Every structure is written in structure tokens, then in C-alpha cells.
Amino acid sequence: MNIHEYQAKQLLAKHGAPISDGYPAFTADEAVEAAKKLPGPVYVVKSQIHAGGRGKGKFEGLGADAAGGVRVVKSVDEVKSNAEEMLGRVLVTHQTGPEGKQVNRLYIEDGADIAKEYYLSLLVDRASGMPAFVVSTEGGMDIEEVAASTPEKIHTITVDPATGYQPHHGRAVAAALDLSGDTAKKAAKLGKTLYEAFLATDAALLEVNPLVETGDGDLLVLDAKMGFDGNALYRHPDIAELQDESEEAEAELEAGKYDLAYVKLDGNIGCMVNGAGLAMATMDIIKLNGAEPANFLDVGGGATKEKVTAAFKIILSDPAVEGILVNIFGGIMRCDIIADGIVAAAKEVSLSVPLVVRLEGTNVEKGKEILETSGLPIVSADSLGDAAKKIVAEVKKA
């Protein structure tokens, strides 16, 4: 689950991270009231969407030369006029794709005296299995270009969770940022603060871009992005409440109601599988047979008839889906339960695309019998490879 910049800053401030004063606003009038609480005379009006590149983004309906989704202004009147222009408009950035995201809220922040911009993030390093800092002296809106063209400027510093953040980690962070003196000490301290916040919130990503050095040599978290492990949100009801459902895909929200793991992809073959590893293998073999998966969908090991029906509806809500491949290995999950769900769902939604089902495991024969006697045009497969070939062929034939 992702949250907005202002929410991330509020969380980080509770852990002691230095941030500028600022207030969220949902209307132009609220933006004016927020600006009046700030010392000024410089204010920053920031679009709040779950995507990076806001500063270079473009609003639909405005000219190519119009300002982006982050604007520096010098009066309360300018705060109001910019808020009126931004709210309710679709912002397109390199991370949103061409469809963009509608701006429904803003963050009105006090201006900062920026001497230098840096990049600092925390994530789980899959190679080492440990939390890691990713640090660069080249912070700001072009960090993706830095990573692509000059990767030597990106430094990774892993932290063993068994021993935690140590003084040598702080020195390594400061050195990677090319800092010295008191500012280096502040960087080491900030690293500890962010590391502790990362662990305490079960974050999957904590990104500060830019981290800025002010003219006085202080460090300031000028922008912040946080994402969290959804499996740990039960431990953080306060964070779960921060979810902005308007930023989430409708199908993924619906999947969450049934405890289904669903991610929309760009292909045309809908997939329903039990088990994340089997789901990944299913998507791979679809690609090997010349098609593309339309989604990742794991119904889990304890799926009910109702969950399977819901999964079918979610898959078919994607207009790009031209066929469905169901791949079930019944261990905890019984094949007859899956078969009942498939038949019920196919009848309820008036299935109009090819459907190939591969069942294996507990009660497999009973499951196949249910499918065969359903009266529905369901194509049965004997193996995963056979299933992938059949669904690709059926889609081409349809």
C-alpha cells in the first residue's frame, strides 16, 4: 500500500525526521488557509498523487509550457490560483502512463533554502535479504537518468537487521553523499532515524528525493514516498487508514475484499492460479507460447466457491481479457471446490471468452467431472504446458 507525500512526512516527523512545515488541502480555499499558517513569503503547491515525476508532469488541457505538478509561488493569491488550476485536473507523468492521475488533494508547504539536492532511500535488498540504503549525490527529478547513465553514482549500503544500524552505517551514508563536518554527522543521525522508521512501520520502500542541504548546512526531507507491506498492515491500523482508494485500481480494491492477490498486467490472457510461485510459472509459460498474461491472480490455498466466483468477475472486468487460463494444484485447495466456483462464475457472468482449466491434486477426478457435466464450453488440459498451448490457440481461433 502506498501513501501520499504529506502522509509520509507526517509519519517520518513522528520519528524525528526534519521536514518543512506544510498542510494538506482538498479545495482552493483550504489551500489559502494552509498558506496563511506558513511564514512565507515562498510557498510550494504540490499535487498529491501516487506517482513520481510530478515536477515535470503536465496537466491535461493546459499548454505544453504550463507549469507542472509542483509549483513554487510567492504569494497567497498565487497559491489560490494555482490550486484552482490543479485540483480536479489529470496530471500525466512518466510514472502514471498516458492516462495520468486526477489530482484530488494538494500539499501546501513552506519554501526551503536549497543549497544541494541528494537522493536517499531504504528498501529490502532481495540479493542480500536485508534492508538497504540506496544513496546518491545526484538527487532530484532526474534520478532515473542518473541510475541509467551513471550507475557508479548510486551507492548501496546494506544493514544486517540482527545488529541494526551502527555508527559505520552512518559514516557510509555520509561518505556516499560526499558530506563532511557537522552536515555529515546530521546525515548519519538522519540515516538512523529513517532506518528505525522503516522497520517500525513495516515499510517496503522509503524514498527521500530530494533530501536537501540548506544554506545553513541542515538536512531536510523535502519529498518523501512510502510504501508498505500489505501483509503487515494488520499491525498498523493507523497506517491502513491512510489508504486513498481513489488512487487504487478498482479491480485491486475488489480483490482485497475477498483476500485475493491481484495485479493487473497488460496482456490478453486472464490467469487464475493458487499459489504465487505457480502463478508466476503460469505467466511465464503463457509468454513462452506467444501470448501475454493480463493479470497475476492468486486465489490462495483456502479459496471458497465465493472467492473463485469473485476472482472470475475481477478477471472479466478487464476488457483486454480475450481468454482465461485456470491452473490449480489442489493440496490444501480441493479441485472440486475450484470446479464448483468456475461453473458458478461462468454461468453468473455469461462467460463469452475461451476458458481452459488445468486441475491437479486433491479430488481432481471429481473436479473434472463437475466441469465436464456443466454443459459449458470449458476446455480441459492435462498439464501446464498443454493448458498454455490450448488457451493461446483458443484465443487465436476466437
TrEMBL record:
The keyword Metal-binding applies. Mg(2+) binds at residues 209, 223. Its EC number is 6.2.1.5. One of its GO terms (cellular component) is succinate-CoA ligase complex. Pfam families: ATP-grasp_2, Ligase_CoA. ATP binds at residues 46, 53-55, 109, 112, 117. Binds 1 Mg(2+) ion per subunit. Pathway: Carbohydrate metabolism; tricarboxylic acid cycle; succinate from succinyl-CoA (ligase route): step 1/1; One-carbon metabolism; formaldehyde assimilation via serine pathway. One of its GO terms (biological process) is succinyl-CoA metabolic process. Heterotetramer of two alpha and two beta subunits. Succinyl-CoA synthetase functions in the citric acid cycle (TCA), coupling the hydrolysis of succinyl-CoA to the synthesis of either ATP or GTP and thus represents the only step of substrate-level phosphorylation in the TCA. The beta subunit provides nucleotide specificity of the enzyme and binds the substrate succinate, while the binding sites for coenzyme A and phosphate are found in the alpha subunit. This is Succinate--CoA ligase [ADP-forming] subunit beta. The gene is sucC.
